[in-house]
Amino acid sequence: MQESKNIAVVGSGLVGSLLAIYLRNRGHEVDVYDRRPDIRTIEFSGRSINLAMSLRGWLALEEVGVAEEVKKLAIRMDKRAIHLPGKPLYFQPYGKEGEAIYSISRGVLNKKMITLAEKAGARFIFESKVWDVDLDEAAIHTGKSENESRMSARYDHIFGADGAFSRVRHKMQRQSRFNYAQEFLNTGYKELTIPANADGSHKLEKHSLHIWPRGAFMLIALPNLDGSFTCTLFMPFEGAHSFESLDSDIKVQQFFEKHFPDVVEDIPSLLKEFFRNPTSALVTIKCFPWAYSDKVALVGDSAHAIVPFYGQGMNAGFEDIRVLNNLMNVHENDWHSIFRQYESERKPNTDAIAELSFRNFMEMSTKTADPQFILRKKIEGRFAAKHPDKWAPLYSRVTFSERPYAEALAEGDRQRAIMDRIMEIKNIADIWDSEEVEQRILGLLETTVPAEMWK
Amino acid sequence: MQESKNIAVVGSGLVGSLLAIYLRNRGHEVDVYDRRPDIRTIEFSGRSINLAMSLRGWLALEEVGVAEEVKKLAIRMDKRAIHLPGKPLYFQPYGKEGEAIYSISRGVLNKKMITLAEKAGARFIFESKVWDVDLDEAAIHTGKSENESRMSARYDHIFGADGAFSRVRHKMQRQSRFNYAQEFLNTGYKELTIPANADGSHKLEKHSLHIWPRGAFMLIALPNLDGSFTCTLFMPFEGAHSFESLDSDIKVQQFFEKHFPDVVEDIPSLLKEFFRNPTSALVTIKCFPWAYSDKVALVGDSAHAIVPFYGQGMNAGFEDIRVLNNLMNVHENDWHSIFRQYESERKPNTDAIAELSFRNFMEMSTKTADPQFILRKKIEGRFAAKHPDKWAPLYSRVTFSERPYAEALAEGDRQRAIMDRIMEIKNIADIWDSEEVEQRILGLLETTVPAEMWK
């Protein structure tokens, strides 16, 4: 019989709100703290990349019965739309017929999640910063500012869902033998907007994630329900093509006209947004352990922030919660075992998606325009279509499967090694769709061990 | 013409003291702060591994004319003495005739370095903790405790030589886009002592670094001038053979009698030391950048703490100082260029020695007892002796050379790939010293590119 507990969740973002719904459904008392005001009462910040919800995210929402409601806020994207300079637009389907990812505005989703958590009975305490956490006592000390009078509250358990620069994790870091790493990309990002047409329709093909790959920099655009697109420019902070170098209206205008001529007209507030919106950094954060005794645990970005190039940040955080919930079913009131198994099961998988996301940064910005890479993808695509049981594409393993990320990474490495051998064939460009190449791949598959086998 | 500057060095350890000597020799005013009392006035802590000074360390000392004086404190070690259970003791020379590393007690050396720095005119301010650093102003705020009145002092430049858990680096960490990683081994260590014989002589062969490799754990012993040996037991914190499991006198005694029967009698205070001395953690720390503007720079462990298994921690820190000094010769008063080139030149090399040190942990504890590994080393040794121009052993590149660590790592990887191929030869154990194997290595060397070429 499961006992009802008093639980604090620090952070009212997507993962914290979802966790609150799960915990309420299990009959616990839940207080969610956030240092910011209620996001439902304020304008959103203009420093966000649209979310791409995929299978792992949907499964976590379905389990608490809120998937349908969230889907109303999402736009289906079944393909990449690739804009190359001087070439016609072309489309790459993300998966098989019926498979798609879903574009959702972070702000819109967060508001909805908080409302759903409130409906489930969670209490939200906004504008209440957690200044200190007592790990042994599961007590938190909060207040509006450092000098104002503090409130203290003791719980049975505390979850840190307070993001990449987590205060809860910061407290755990002071333990001896706490592994921690933060690594920034030299590439930053800036949000821009393509507004809707006057009739509310989308200016670009609506059911696509649009990409303008340009080597060291890249523009992407994801659709919103209101007909607009949220664009993100990824570019190095310093160097030849960089945020630092684009320091005047004329330079920005010329840069966009030169590199993004097919879309520059669609961003009417380009200069205003470019200089008003912040240039944000991209960080990978890893740490271990994720939990302290049976008292405190980290979920989502506070445990494993990743770069956004696989669209899996939120999906991985939501999957944390589903895994936790399954372990609560197994271990019931034994929170020690819940937390130990949670961190040991999730850690290899979030390390894997961190690595895959970093690699996709390289792939999206440089390789999507490389003929050798396109040929490789064509060969893989042909083989996967003929032998779907033998060759699930890496992207599909990550995006349209609930198998562990670590397995996807290992299997992706195996496929890459096989394709390296195939691409070494001298006249591969001529015989890529031949029986010979197909047989060669089948042979190589037989002499290597699939990742599922050694898991 | 070089201008004299006012410079603060935070930390009076080995690297801080050496830096103070260098800076004084260049005509700067130098204040060295340390939160601890003067080490010359106190008993040393009992949580140290003896140092192994090798070429890089000696070169840095020679350049300021203190090598001879330090050598008086050191004992030459020209070989490993390997103690395997049930087998006769055997010796592995570290290098060629005349090459050796030198055992020095950390405490003894630190006292000498402070005295040498004082003699050079550096001011030491002990029991003065740096609570805060103003990076833009190069100002430090010090005091005996957090509540007592603080002193502030402004300098032209500040160096953080305050070790793995550096306060100066902590302040630099708050910048955006500061990369940082701390990773602990699951293995810890404990100091033990083999005292001298009654006549002051050493109980074990004096000119050797003694190793008792036992797989997951390992004992080492380094000689001291007074006839004693400083021993270090490396062992996992938790698990079957672990510090956690050895929780009683009888368990410790039985453990040593079983695994180290040839030396247990030589550690008369085993039980007392085992339970009195702390169990210390081993950490690798990486960060970047190492410098802030032309104001503040990190040196030694504060920039790059490594695990001790290559005996290069102090050597790498001393080499930082020699590199800095060379850059001060080149760039004179342009401290901005000094710091930029210092961090970009040193970072790949300290990353390389971090990796090599971690790998040597595996090698020392497990592989030194593995027949395949011993055969591999014999083949390499034979080839290196016949072709010294073609095959400098990795250990020698790290220990007896001043070429960059990154080159040693790359060249070591190339050699390892070649030896992997050689060890695949079916009857290698029978033909290891044949002309055929030698020719095969020569052939493989010709078809791969040495690391020097692409540097």
TrEMBL record, chains A, B:
GO biological process: anthranilate metabolic process; kynurenine metabolic process; L-tryptophan catabolic process; NAD+ biosynthetic process; quinolinate biosynthetic process
Oxidoreductase in keyword set: yes
Catalytic activity: L-kynurenine + NADPH + O2 + H(+) = 3-hydroxy-L-kynurenine + NADP(+) + H2O
Keywords from the named record: FAD, Flavoprotein, Monooxygenase, NADP, Oxidoreductase, Pyridine nucleotide biosynthesis
InterPro entries in the cross-refs: FAD-bd, FAD/NAD-bd_sf, Kynurenine_monooxygenase
UniProt superkingdom: Bacteria
A matching Pfam family: FAD_binding_3
Cofactor(s) in the UniProt record: FAD
Enzyme Commission (EC) number: 1.14.13.9
Positions of the FAD-binding domain: 7-354
GO molecular function: FAD binding; kynurenine 3-monooxygenase activity
Pathway note: Cofactor biosynthesis; NAD(+) biosynthesis; quinolinate from L-kynurenine: step 1/3
Function text: Catalyzes the hydroxylation of L-kynurenine (L-Kyn) to form 3-hydroxy-L-kynurenine (L-3OHKyn). Required for synthesis of quinolinic acid.
Family: Belongs to the aromatic-ring hydroxylase family. KMO subfamily.
Protein name: Kynurenine 3-monooxygenase
Lineage: Bacteria, Pseudomonadati, Bacteroidota, Flavobacteriia, Flavobacteriales
